[in-house]
Amino acid sequence: MWSTGVGPVGNLVAQGANTEGERVVLADFADGTEAGLGEVVTEALRVDLQESAVLSLVPPAQVAEAMARMGLPEGTEVTSERAREVAIRDGLKAIIQGEVGAVGSGYLLTASIVEPSRGEVMASFRADAEDDDELLGALDRLSTDIREKAGESLRVIRAGPGLEEVTTSSLEALRLYAEAVEMADRGQEMETIPLLEEALRLDPEFAMAHRKLSAVLGNLGIQPTRMRAAATRAYELRDRLTEREWGLAEAYYLLRVENNPDRAIEAWQRVLNGYPSDEGARNNIGAAALMVGRPADAVQALRPLFAEGGRPSPLNYDNFIRALWRVGERDEARLTPKGSSPSFPTAVRRSR
Length: 352
Description:
3 domains, six-stranded mixed β-sheet
């Protein structure tokens, strides 16, 4: 059984080193001055908020990675709207947005904590500076106020689950793709096709949606010409993808178009080397190893999915049980509690 999904392996929550505070995206402050103070205030506030025990700002490099998956070029301004989308995609509770404005010879600094999905302002803050000399003092008061009061606001916000970590310029296409992944993992693969078609209508260059459509068609054993065309299109779009997505597109192209499971295994292994927690790549290595008559390799690839704390899917169980059966470990296979294929152990393997 082949894994069709591309999970949120490297999302901002997973990548974060600091787990003491809630992960929050800091948007670039809007600049209403003629002195170009927006960037200065943003970076100064970033430094001050590092002292907070209740929130942890996502590092700029990680925000940039998320924005690259949104199809935005390097150096794009992190507006409030873009910060909200980053938070939605990666399952973060909130963003901090703000503005520095000119008031006579002085300045007004405002900031707010915003729930990303609805854009609801959960808390607002302000500080005044009469002139340039008081600007740093006002910024200090603003950051102190945020640090002291952010905890209550963050406690009442419920973070979203985070979406699949794949490259697409359309948030709605990403939502449809994530829904399709969940349905496929439940075995409802036929129902995923219209979801993927709509995602591709919204973003025709959504490579992982093309790849997943190919995987679903292959799993269902229908429309082989369309299946190969979708795998080919995903591969053609690889130059705009992350390294991980590139490897997944390449592996599936090698499997379905080139009919070369050995090279597909090598491509999936490269993905796994860079992203050891990628369950889809691990599952597909196991499935491909079974395809080429290497059940021992399949057992080795799949066993880590069943370590303590793991959450293997039904198709992980199916492939693992099948691999155990073929290497003669039938007692362990019988003790493995799940598996979705009614015709075990001869059911067709499916990809993720």
